[in-house]
Amino acid sequence: MDRNKLAFDRINYILIAIGMVIIIVGFFLMSGPSSTETHFEPDIFSARRIKVAPAVCFFGFIFMIYGILHKAKKRHEIEDNQDK
Fold first, then answer.
1. What is the b/e burial string over 20-48, where b = at least 16 CB atoms within 10 angstroms of the residue's CB?
2. What's the pLDDT tens digit per position in 14-26?
3. 2 part of a folded domain
């Protein structure tokens, strides 16, 4: 298959994978013990679960969008820049 016809380049897949890992880390930061009807868990209001984890997930989603929109340089553009 011709590489010029592919929608993404190798760097796009790497950036998308990094964004996915960041999102997964954010979801792990959100996890923790839950409250039940008989026991209240005050950790559900911790700064890690309310502020840090959603910010990490948001950064991961933004990074994935960047990975999708990133346009790799063509080989002939790189060679032209090196000749100058």
1. eebbeebeebeeeeeeeeeeeeeeeeeee
2. 999 999 999 999 9
3. no
